[in-house]
Automatic annotation (TrEMBL):
<dbReference type="InterPro" id="IPR013360">
    <property type="entry name" value="Pilus_4_PilW"/>
</dbReference>
<keyword id="KW-0732">Signal</keyword>
<feature type="repeat" description="TPR">
    <location>
        <begin position="36"/>
        <end position="69"/>
    </location>
</feature>
<dbReference type="InterPro" id="IPR011990">
    <property type="entry name" value="TPR-like_helical_dom_sf"/>
</dbReference>
<protein>
    <submittedName>
        <fullName>Type IV pilus biogenesis/stability protein PilW</fullName>
    </submittedName>
</protein>
<dbReference type="InterPro" id="IPR019734">
    <property type="entry name" value="TPR_rpt"/>
</dbReference>
<feature type="repeat" description="TPR">
    <location>
        <begin position="140"/>
        <end position="173"/>
    </location>
</feature>
<keyword id="KW-0802">TPR repeat</keyword>
<feature type="signal peptide">
    <location>
        <begin position="1"/>
        <end position="22"/>
    </location>
</feature>
<dbReference type="Pfam" id="PF13424">
    <property type="entry name" value="TPR_12"/>
</dbReference>
<feature type="repeat" description="TPR">
    <location>
        <begin position="70"/>
        <end position="103"/>
    </location>
</feature>
<keyword id="KW-0677">Repeat</keyword>
<dbReference type="Pfam" id="PF13181">
    <property type="entry name" value="TPR_8"/>
</dbReference>
Amino acid sequence: MRRTNLAVTLLLGLVLSGCVTTSDQPQRANDPDAARDAYIQLGLGYLQQGETESAKAPLSEALKIDPGSASANIALAMVFQREGEYESADKHFRAAQASDPNNPRILNNYGVFLLNQERYPEALEAFQKASQDNFYGERSRVFENLGLTYARMGQVEEAKASFERALRLNSRQPLALLEMAKIEFTAQNYVPAWEYYRNFTEYSGQDAESLWLGVRLARRFEDHNRAASYALQLRRLYPASAQAQALEASE
């Protein structure tokens, strides 16, 4: 699903910036901070290449140098999350948060983990705390994630308010645009739903769910070309989906 993919992309940008290499083992030498950061970079390099087993050793070395390193802990959390070792991932997310409890990036990414684990009240708490930092550079994503959490909890008005807040901060947030289109469509507010949807298509690819929404909205406005285009894509790309079956039943 698009939500999960976006969450993973967000997580991979978390820890350290700069060039990543897996070619040389760093040495502790006389600068433990530099050695710690080099081990973290090495671990991230393996993680980005999908080599989670190889990533664990350098990240563990980083924690030997600095047991309280939030960056090392959250990198290990991502490794274990990728491997499906959710208890270990949770342990390292918590350790990262304990080391830097007000860091909005850590809070947001731990919230994403909790959201994907369907631990909604905990995710809500993490996102709400992260949203309090007015200077966080990805604050729009926090409100987007907050909206997703409310939506999954069935709190539609709170979800709508969060998505609107996300879009005030960044009008090009595709997931917030799509979710607003779905909310307005369900409420039979078709004009704003169509506007949100068309803006969404400018910034994102489509999945079966969004294409089916596009078909129904285009039909509402008698935009036959768009309706046919979305229907064709849905049949071609997602022929076995529930949305494709609903399309066939509607014709």
